[in-house]
């Protein structure tokens, strides 16, 4: 039985024909920082919102002294209490 060996050049040509743009592994290996920097940006500022100094003060004031519950909120509390009470 005769064994045929494929040259390294032919192997490279075969691979380039199968993967004309290179493999995903090649892309990640060749550009590791590109994907990392995008991930860092998303992680660091997923839902970043910027407020003016006046808006920041208004938010802080509202959180530290919230308004009294209105009629709709009181009804919601009552409905919640009725639904979650145990039979004790």
Write a brief caption for the model.
The chain has 88 residues and is mostly helical.
Task: Give an overview in words.
- The protein is elongated and about 90 Å long.
- The relative contact order is 0.04.
- 65% of the residues lie in helices and 0% in strands.
- The mean pLDDT is 76.
- With 88 residues, it is mostly helical.
Query: Can you count the beta strands?
Result: 0
Q: Structural class of the secondary elements?
A: mainly alpha
Number of helices: 5
| Net shape | elongated
Percent in helix:
55-70%
Secondary-structure map:
Elements: H1 8-18, H2 24-30, H3 32-44, H4 53-64, H5 71-84
Feature tags:
88 residues; mainly alpha; elongated; 0% strand
């Amino acid at each position: 039985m005769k064994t045929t060996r494929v040259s390294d050049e032919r192997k490279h040509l075969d691979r380039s024909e199968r993967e004309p743009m290179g493999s995903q592994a090649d892309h990640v290996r060749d550009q590791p920082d590109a994907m990392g920097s995008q991930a860092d940006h998303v992680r660091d500022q997923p839902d970043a919102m910027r407020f003016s100094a006046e808006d920041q003060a208004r938010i802080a004031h509202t959180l530290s002294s919230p308004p009294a519950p209105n009629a709709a909120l009181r009804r919601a509390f009552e409905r919640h209490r009725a639904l979650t009470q145990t039979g004790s």
